Amino acid sequence: MYLLCTILAALFSFLVLKWMKRRNYCMDVKRLDGKTVLITGGNSGIGKETAVALALRGARVILACRDEDRARKAVREIKARSHNLNVLHMEVDLANMKSIREFSKTFLQKEKRLDILINNAGVPSVLNWTDDNFSMCFGVNHLGHFLLTNLLLPRLKESSPSRVITLTCSNYKYQRLDFQDLNYNLFPFFTYCRSKLANIYFTQELARMMEGKGVMAYAVHPGYVQSNWTCHYSFLFQLLMKVIMFMFYVSCEAGAQTVVHCAVADEVITNNGGYFCDCKPAKLQAFANDAGVAKKLWEASERLVKLA
């Protein structure tokens, strides 16, 4: 009897965990032949799975990565899995504004199209600093992608209709921006939350500014995913998180589905500037829907990256 109860309890727990981890998959079968996709941080995790999915649809996929060795390995894997040889990588360090400018200049010289830009790369809750003295989370997760997107906007407009998809996180709701200290770097988790909130405001303002110009923008929360973000932390923390992620987090393939959905589905067009989760529009906290704050952040970001 005890054994039977144990088995039933284990089965029930398994079914509950499976139900908690359920995710919608992108069902749109649109091809992307002749389209060019640029994915930052596409050498692992969600970025790599997104690259595979879009390469399978025939897209030319370019991985923008900092680590050349890992990028080359990822390119080989993506080609093998997608049977698409039109996959390559270009080097960029989103923690270095000079690197972003050089990358963008090279990209504009070499690439005649940019149909989908996926701002996927990001860093977790860390207290490091970028080469330009920005907090690592704000500098990479927001400012790096802000500068990159702006520098590539000419090609995005020329390739219209085009899309910019920026990955964010539902943790945005735990913090608000402080314009007296945008470069906040005191508590790692709060720093991360602010950078993810900035991603949402960036998407909203980009959509407003590009209205009528053929460039659409979407913010995506992929869910809590079994990616390799724990590599920034101690071995014991990594071990603990591997157990937790195995139990509660979804696979990278499942996490990539909403990104793919926003990249290909026609139905998202009516939600330009929107926030998506689980392949459908999601509701934001009221304070995250403030057009005034979004505009103010855009102007402050322009000054910080010297975009004028």
Features:
SDR_fam, NAD(P)-bd_dom_sf, 308 residues, oxidoreductase activity, Rossmann fold, globular, 10 helices
Protein architecture, described:
The protein has helices at about 1-20, 45-55, 70-80, 95-110, 135-160, 190-210, 235-250, 250-255, 255-265, 290-305; strands at about 35-40, 60-65, 85-90, 115-120, 160-165, 215-220, 275, 280. With about 300 residues, it is α/β, with parallel strands linked by helices. It has one domain: Rossmann fold (3-Layer(aba) Sandwich). It has an 8-stranded mixed β-sheet with strand order 3-2-1-4-5-6-7-8, sandwiched between helices. The protein is globular. The termini are far apart. Residues about 10-20 have low confidence and may be disordered.
**Count of DSSP H/I helices:** 10
Rg, rounded, reads: 19 Å
Straight-line N-to-C gap: 74 Å
> Based on the structure given, which CATH architecture is correct?
3-Layer(aba) Sandwich
For the sheet with most strands, the description reads: 8 strands, mixed
Signal peptide: 1-26
InterPro entries: NAD(P)-bd_dom_sf, SDR_fam
Family: Belongs to the short-chain dehydrogenases/reductases (SDR) family.
GO molecular function: oxidoreductase activity
Blueprint of the fold:
Layout: H1 2-20, E1 36-40, H2 45-56, E2 60-65, H3 68-82, E3 87-91, H4 97-110, E4 116-119, H5 136-158, E5 162-167, H6 188-209, E6 215-221, H7 235-248, H8 252-255, H9 257-264, E7 275-277, E8 280-281, H10 291-304
Parallel strand pairs: 1-2, 1-4, 2-3, 4-5, 5-6, 6-7
Antiparallel strand pairs: 7-8
Helix pairs in contact: 2-3, 4-5, 5-6, 6-10
GO molecular function, one term: oxidoreductase activity
Family: Belongs to the short-chain dehydrogenases/reductases (SDR) family.
Signal peptide: 1-26
